[in-house]
Design brief:
Structural class: alpha/beta
Radius of gyration: 20 Å
Shape: globular
Number of strands: 15
Strand content: 15-25%
CATH topology of the largest domain: Peroxisomal Thiolase, Chain A, domain 1
Distance between the termini: 14 Å
Strand order of the largest sheet: 5-4-6-8-1-9-15-14-10-11
Number of domains: 2
CATH class of the largest domain: Alpha Beta
Order of helices and strands: HEHEEHHEHHHEHEHEEHEHEHEHHHEEEE
Largest sheet: 10 strands, mixed
CATH superfamily of the largest domain: Thiolase/Chalcone synthase
Oligomer: single chain
Low-confidence stretches: none
Mean pLDDT: 97
CATH architecture of the largest domain: 3-Layer(aba) Sandwich
Number of helices: 15
Length: about 425
């Protein structure tokens, strides 16, 4: 039996709050994933024109005043919504907590581009006279903004900051939260990732210039990782924040536990600005398995990062074949096929979509795979229809990002 000291070193998920292009709660989101329902839609943004995107439609003023929303950012609103929903889901009463002992750790891909683009666009109407520049610009664009807006809204006086880790950031937020709990720097961690990327034309324009922006006659089929017809990324917004606690604290109050974070790893390719390295990705997965004291064939579900780009999907599949080979008990899926790439929120959202499998025993599919690319073949790949797999014990979640940053987390059913 674990000792009390060991229980204090074990970190568990006790609450989940999210908004995704196909759901504003874990229940709605999971229902959409099992039903094969995409959240991607046609979208038009200035200068770029018609494209596709994963857009969220949540009640911004549920936990935020209209005045604060006007002063703040979309990413801040996403974070505030997710933080409140996660706390409510955890069953913790905020007024019973010491706000000095709560930490907020939010992963982001980028922040400030939306606000800067909007200000310059508005300024053009005033012949670029900077006296019309918003005095809210600086607090809107500082890197700690999304976490800071959550702190201001909730009255959390413990540490808050964002983790800039490109598209590995959702996992990085979870990793940071667990580390701070183990160090005793907080007693409750609100952590995960958020993204407002669909509101900046620059990200669409840049992906298009790279030849990496997806297009399709049917928006719901534009995001198609592993398919031979895939042609790029569908940009999405969203957020997913978790409440993490030490196991002994969660047990003491009889909390619902979604799972235990038993392994994680981060590393760097140190190779290219955008092209991934399958060797370093494989090493990151292997490092997380070592930390969890697991063999590869003990993992039940691998949630892939695959974005729908030609080289990116192939490299990740190559990495997974190195680690898992033809493991008969490991099932592999992808969530971006439903919602697009939610950037800083991607890893956190993708993990959340798989966690209910601990209870219902169903692995959601990767949709939109009409013809599997032979270079993306993986044993156990779940395509187009969900699969009953029994009650899994371990879920491994991949998230990789530009400039060669890789992250992996492993969650165990408790």
């Amino acid at each position: 039996m674990p000792t009390a000291t060991e229980d204090r070193d074990r970190i568990v998920i006790t609450g989940i709050g999210l908004t995704a292009p196909n759901g504003n709660s874990l229940g709605e989101y999971r229902e959409a994933l099992l039903a094969g329902r995409s959240g991607v839609q046609d979208y038009e943004i200035r200068y770029v024109g018609q494209t596709h995107a994963g857009l969220c439609d949540f009640e911004e003023t549920r936990h935020q005043k209209k005045k604060d929303r006007r002063r703040g950012t979309r990413a801040g609103s996403v974070g505030i919504y997710c933080a409140h929903e996660a706390l409510a889901d955890s069953g913790l009463a905020f007024d019973s907590l010491d706000p000095n002992r709560i930490g907020i750790y939010v992963g982001v891909t980028e922040h400030g581009n939306v606000e800067t683009e909007n200000e310059i666009y508005e300024l053009a109407g005033y012949d670029y006279d900077v006296k019309f520049w918003s005095h809210h610009h600086n607090p809107r664009t500082v890197a700690n903004n999304p976490a800071g807006e959550i702190s201001l809204n909730m009255g959390v006086t413990g540490p808050h900051y964002t983790i800039g880790a490109a598209c590995a950031a959702g996992n990085a937020g979870l990793i940071q939260g667990s580390q701070m709990l183990r160090l005793g720097e907080c007693d409750l961690a609100i952590c995960g990732g958020v993204s407002e990327s669909v509101h900046t034309f620059g990200i669409f324009a840049s992906f298009r210039s790279q030849g990496a922006l997806a297009c399709h006659t049917d928006a719901t089929k534009a995001s198609r990782p592993f398919d031979t017809g895939r042609n790029g990324i569908v940009v999405a917004e969203g957020g997913c924040l978790y409440t993490l606690e030490r196991l002994d604290d969660a047990k003491r109050r009889g909390a619902k536990i979604y799972g235990e974070l038993v392994g994680y790893a981060m590393n760097s390719d140190a190779k290219d600005f955008v092209l991934p390295d399958d060797t370093r990705q494989a090493e990151c997965v292997q490092a997380a398995l070592r930390k969890a004291n697991l063999n590869a064939d003990e993992v039940d579900i691998v949630s892939t990062h695959a974005t729908g780009t030609a080289s990116g999907d192939e490299q990740e599949c190559k990495a997974l074949r190195k680690v898992f080979g033809g493991s008969p008990r490991t099932f592999i899926n992808n969530t971006k096929s439903f919602i697009g790439h939610a950037m800083g929120a991607a890893g956190a959202l993708e993990l959340a979509g798989n966690l209910p499998t601990f209870e219902d025993g169903i692995c959601h599919a990767t949709i939109n795979v009409d013809e599997l690319d032979p270079n993306c073949h993986l044993e156990g790949l779940v395509l187009n229809e969900p699969r009953e797999i029994g009650r899994p014990t371990y879920i491994l979640n991949n998230s990789f990002g530009m400039l060669g940053i890789n992250s992996v987390v492993i969650i165990k059913r408790v």
